[in-house]
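Quick review question:
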């Protein structure tokens, strides 16, 4: 899976359409969402990865950015186990998405992502997933 984060130019060459994916708070689904990770692109102005998802239940396309955790040297969310620099695309994930001060935040407000179907019942973050 390593190396599957694309440059902007490569994503366009491969036929991806990032402009179809919404990122504004009113356009991104909130709460717990099952979505397929379609593709990933290195962010241009920050140390981050723009992840492009399609919501499983609605087909809605949206973008989330995962920032580099400088202390750990990875692209994981605060309480997540998925490193978005290495995780597979074309796979269903369960996401927790929230808004803080009219901004969709993925570092603290989005507490984690995991492959769907992982019903270990183990607490993740603030009991967001499983039976936690």
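Suggested answer, residue by residue:
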């Amino acid at each position: 899976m390593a190396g599957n984060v694309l440059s902007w130019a490569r994503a366009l060459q491969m036929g991806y359409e990032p402009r179809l994916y919404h990122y504004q708070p009113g356009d991104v689904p909130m709460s717990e969402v099952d979505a397929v990770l379609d593709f990933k692109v290195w962010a241009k102005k920050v140390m981050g990865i723009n992840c492009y998802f399609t919501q499983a239940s609605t087909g809605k396309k949206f973008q989330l950015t995962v920032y580099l955790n400088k202390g750990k040297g990875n692209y994981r969310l605060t309480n997540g186990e998925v490193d978005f620099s290495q995780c597979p695309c074309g796979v269903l994930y369960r996401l927790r998405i929230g808004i803080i001060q009219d901004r969709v935040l993925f570092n603290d407000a989005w507490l984690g992502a995991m492959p769907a179907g992982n019903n270990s019942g183990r607490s993740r973050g603030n009991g967001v997933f499983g039976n936690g």
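Why it works: The chain has one helix and six strands. Strands lie at 31-42, 48-55, 61-67, 92-100, 103-105, 113-115.
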